[in-house]
Design brief:
By secondary structure, this protein is mainly alpha-helical. Helix content is about 70%, strand content about 5%. The chain is globular and about 50 Å long.
Amino acid sequence: MFGYVSANWKELTKEQQQRYQSVYCGICRGIRGSFGSAARLGLSYDMAFLALLLMSLYEPEEDGGKRSCMLHPAKPRPWVDNRFVRYAADMNVALAYYNFLDDWQDDRKHAAKWMADALKKSLPRIREQYPRQCQALETCMGKLSELEKAGCPNPDETAGAFGALMGELFVFQEDLWAPTLRQMGDALGRFIYLLDAAMDYDKDKRKGKYNPYLAMGMEKDPVRWEEYLVLTMGRATGAFERLPLVQDKALLDNILYSGIWVSYRASRKGEGKP
């Protein structure tokens, strides 16, 4: 994921802000405890959304507390822990590894190679515990890389590869809710990929890098891009609303219906768009 699945912080209540932060800190704490401090460099709020979604659906028992850390030594911060927070931590590390590896292979970024090498040692344990998810990561990231290198002119194919990846990550276990979670993750993954392409259009054009909109010969067209994004997000929220969510529902609504658009809207205002 690319860091877009985050809350509209200003619209959250203080209680929601604390809850959101406690899940994020719980994931950070879980990564540090299982994989070391360096692994936290790939941490983003994207996985906090996944943890909150699964916690709302399955309502597990939670542990928690307050503690200061190296990143925030002055003031103790609340954290929560449960199996879904730990799952989000594992998936964050696995996804970060493949993202860093892709950056190294595509752009020869030495910092990305260093991070990929640092995270690689964590993969065997995650793969053993979550073979389906890790196989999806490897297969879909490989397919996405091949499509991009071939200059694929069909954005549905490239977005679909990332969507399939996210669909598997959203399914913690094969049960009654797995089909709906898979549909939601697939649509959200497609949305993230297309949003990232829209945000990076100018940079990719300048650097001659692959971008699905460039590959299909489209000139810069934020209005048309937004039509794609709204349609794709509609599929994600349609699946989301079929889930029986009560706990943290308002916070999840904030992320999907408001927060996820903040960066995109801000970029359009910078272009003089309403």
